[in-house]
Design brief:
The structure is a single chain. The protein is of the alpha/beta class. It contains nine helices and eight strands. It has an eight-stranded parallel beta sheet. α5 links the parallel β5 and β6. The longest helix has 18 residues. The relative contact order is 0.16. The protein binds zinc ion (ZN). The site of zinc ion has 5 residues, from loops.
C-alpha cells in the first residue's frame, strides 16, 4: 500500500532532533512521497535542504495568508524566480485567505491575487489555505482561468465543498476529519468524487485521533486515510490507491 502525505512542514524546529526516525516511521506506514508546503519564501533553503536529504520530498513555494504583512512590492518577482529555480517545486503555496480573527482582509486578498497570477503564469497547481473565507475565496478564484490545485486541511461543509469541486479543485482531508465534532467535514469527505480526493497531515499541527494533542508527523496520514476510507465505506487499500494516483496527477509526480 502506498500513501502520499500531501501537506507537511517538517522543516519546523520540533522535528530537527529526529528526522531520520521520522522517515523510518513514514516508510513503515506506507508513505512513499510527501509534499512540503511553504509558509514564507524565506523558508525556501531549509525546505530545499530537506529535499536533498529525503528523495521522496517535493515542495511548494508561497506566502501564507497569516504572513500577508510580509508581502512587499518585490515579492511577486522574487516568488516567480524562486518557483522556477528547482525542478522539485510542484506547486505555489500555501496561499489563500484566513479570515478567522483577521483585520487585514484587503491585504490578504491582494497577496493571494498576486500568487494566483504567478501560478497561472507558470501553470502550476496551488495549495490553498482557507479558513472562514470560503465565499470570498470562491469569488477571487472566479477572476482567474485555469486555476487548479488543492483545498488543503479542508474544513468546509458540503455546500462549500461543492463550490470548489465545481471549480475543478481537489479536496484534501487532514486529522480534523477524525475529530468527534467534525460531522460537517465528515459529510464533505463522503461526497468528494474519488478522483478529487487527497489526504494529508499538515504536520506538526492537528494530529489525528488516536494521536490527537501530540506532535503530528507524516506517518499519521495513515490514520487520516483509515478514517476517510471508513466514512466512504471502502478499504484503506482502495483509498490509498485512489489518493496516491490523484496526488501524482495533480502534482505531476513520478513514483519509482
Ligand atoms: Zn500548512
Amino acid at each position: 500500500m502506498q500513501l502520499i502525505d500531501t501537506h507537511v512542514h517538517i522543516n519546523f524546529d520540533v522535528f530537527q532532533q529526529d528526522l531520520k526516525a521520522l522517515q523510518q516511521r513514514w516508510q513503515d506506514a506506507g508513505v512513499v512521497h510527501l509534499i512540503h508546503s511553504c509558509v514564507e519564501p524565506s523558508e525556501f533553503s531549509s525546505i530545499q535542504a530537506l529535499a536533498d536529504c529525503f528523495s521522496e520530498l517535493s515542495f511548494a513555494v508561497g506566502l501564507h495568508p497569516l504572513d500577508a504583512a510580509k508581502w512587499t512590492p518585490t515579492s511577486a518577482a522574487e516568488l516567480l524566480t524562486l518557483a522556477q529555480s528547482d525542478p522539485r517545486i510542484v506547486a505555489i503555496g500555501e496561499l489563500g485567505l484566513d479570515y478567522f480573527k483577521a483585520e487585514n482582509q484587503q491585504q490578504q486578498m491582494e497577496v493571494c491575487r498576486g500568487q494566483l497570477a504567478i501560478a497561472q503564469q507558470l501553470n502550476k497547481p496551488i495549495i490553498v489555505h482557507c479558513r472562514d473565507a470560503a465565499a470570498p475565496l470562491r469569488e477571487l478564484f472566479a477572476e482567474f482561468n485555469n486555476l487548479r490545485g488543492v483545498m488543503h486541511c479542508w474544513a468546509g461543509n458540503p455546500e462549500e465543498t461543492q463550490w470548489f469541486l465545481d471549480l475543478g479543485f481537489y479536496i484534501s482531508f487532514s486529522g480534523i476529519v477524525t475529530f468527534k465534532k467534525a460531522e460537517a467535514i465528515q459529510a464533505s469527505a463522503q461526497m468528494v468524487p474519488s478522483d478529487r480526493l487527497l489526504v494529508e497531515t499538515d504536520c506538526p499541527f492537528l494530529a489525528p485521533v488516536p494521536k490527537r494533542g501530540k506532535r503530528n508527523e507524516p506517518a499519521y496520514v495513515r490514520h487520516v486515510a483509515e478514517k476517510v476510507a471508513q466514512l466512504r465505506g471502502i478499504s484503506l487499500e482502495t483509498l490509498a490507491a485512489q489518493t496516491t494516483e490523484n496526488a501524482c496527477t495533480l502534482f505531476n509526480l513520478n513514483l519509482n
